[in-house]
Design a protein that fits this description.
441 residues, mainly alpha, 0% strand
Length: 441
């Protein structure tokens, strides 16, 4: 397909619209893209869409963002990929910056405090529901249950998240050879290939020249990404010192970006543990509130890193006590840039090979093992949150049974009655405000 058949301006308008309506986490975002691009607009066939999605699922990083970048790239070259990926996350960055400022500036106001009192237990329920949903898809046999249990115990014992991912991948690689039936991957988000009529990028559409693989293209894209990353990191280090807050954020979020196998919930314990315990950028209650804000804004859930960056820049007063908003603004953009840069490099460097081969990927066994480990890691995140929400004064103090009740109601609403995420969080926030105003919580 020649890019001229679909103008870049038309694509820009769509990607910007998608950035504002992409609620529902990666599954919901991918479903919206499928509905808009495959079923309604017919920009890409379902076969090519799923082929791209399969590759994005194997990469560290936010798969929905990478999928948007991939489709933008195949339609309009590198510029199209940059436009699609940037516009997919840009609205959520500005929204989270605004909400983070309001949270830090007005979070102690009774109405706002009551709102977050109700939202926090709902977030515990959201994480438990996420573990349940991932588990029902990933834990298909005793081996997968064993991997999930081992990952949970390892993370609770303090094992580093990167080591857990690596161990799961090694187990999956070996298991795929020794017992392939135990490590076979499931379907691609439960989707089946259907015919929706001709598409601009169809199953048998010839590859455009920019999508043909070459080692020169691979080296160019990887080199450009590494140079851009190094220049940005060096600039921060020269401006504020290597041990400065913004430099340390850049280095940490680079590492986190390379470890986000299995989605945002998998890497959040790593981000939270480092932000709270190692760097001291935020407190545990603030991190829970940040996840609540991230869940209720469009864009990928990993955008919660913008909240972490904003709070870290604000609390560390990186530009002095008279420029707190500017410090938070800078922290949010540093966290966002270094989190998402690797995703663009992975797409621009690897997508030509994927498009040229157009065959089945052979990494499903390690992916299955990593996904099983993610179940255990996400469950540990629920335990982490529950400890701080249900025992706000710390163990062995009394349990906050009101918070437990809100969490139980939210969990039942999502799992039993299939209530949407946004209504549940808003209802919990309203309940928290009412209970606080009535003096019952």
């Amino acid at each position: 397909m020649e890019s001229g058949r679909l103008s870049l301006g038309t694509a820009v308008r769509f990607w910007l619209k998608l950035g504002f309506i992409s609620f529902g986490g990666p599954t919901g975002q991918i479903a919206i893209m499928h509905q808009e691009l495959v079923e309604r607009r017919r920009w890409i066939s379902e076969g090519r869409f799923l082929h791209a999605l399969n590759y994005c699922m194997l990469l560290p990083g936010p798969e929905a963002t990478q999928l948007a970048t991939y489709i933008g790239w195949i339609m309009h070259r590198t510029l199209g990929g940059i436009v699609a990926g940037v516009l997919f996350v840009l609205p959520s960055v500005f929204i989270l910056i605004a909400l983070s400022w309001m949270y830090l500036a007005y979070g102690e106001v009774p109405l706002v405090a009551g709102l977050f009192y109700g939202v926090k237990p709902a977030i515990v329920a959201v994480v438990i529901a996420a573990a349940y949903r991932i588990g029902t898809r990933a834990l298909k046999n005793a081996v997968m249950w064993f991997i999930a249990g081992g990952a949970f115990l390892a993370i609770v014992a303090g094992a580093p998240f990167p080591a857990i991912v690596l161990a799961a991948a090694v187990i999956g690689f070996a298991g795929g050879r020794l017992a392939p039936g135990r490590f076979s991957a499931g379907g691609l988000h439960g989707a089946s290939v259907r015919a929706y009529g001709p598409a601009l990028i169809d199953d048998h559409t010839p590859l455009p020249t920019h999508a043909v693989f070459s080692w020169r293209k691979l080296a160019t894209h990887v080199g450009a990404g590494v140079i851009l990353w190094a220049l940005a990191l060096a600039g921060l280090a020269l401006a504020a010192g290597w041990h400065g807050t913004l430099s340390q954020m850049a280095w940490f979020f680079t590492k986190a970006a390379l470890l986000t196998f299995g989605g945002a919930y998998a890497v959040l314990p790593y981000v939270f543990q480092a932000s709270v315990e190692h760097y001291g950028w935020a407190t545990a209650p603030q991190m829970i509130d940040g996840l609540a804000l991230g869940e209720t804004t469009p864009g990928p859930l990993i955008m919660v890193v913008a909240f972490v960056g904003f709070v870290g820049g604000w609390t560390r007063e990186v530009f002095g006590p008279d420029a707190l908003f500017l410090a938070g603004f800078a922290g949010a953009w540093v966290a966002t840039f270094f989190t998402f840069l690797p995703s663009f490099v992975f797409i621009f460097a690897g997508a030509p090979f994927i498009e040229t081969t157009h065959g089945n990927l052979k990494f499903t066994a390690p992916l299955s093992a990593i996904t099983a480990a993610v179940v255990g890691v996400v469950l540990s995140l629920a335990v982490f949150f529950a400890r701080h929400v249900f025992w706000p004064e710390g163990l062995p103090a009394g349990v906050d049974w009101v918070a437990v009740g809100i969490a139980a109601a939210a969990l039942a609403a999502m799992l039993r009655y299939k209530a949407g995420l946004i209504p549940v969080i808003f209802a919990a926030g309203a309940a928290g405000m009412a209970l606080r105003l009535a003096g019952l919580a």
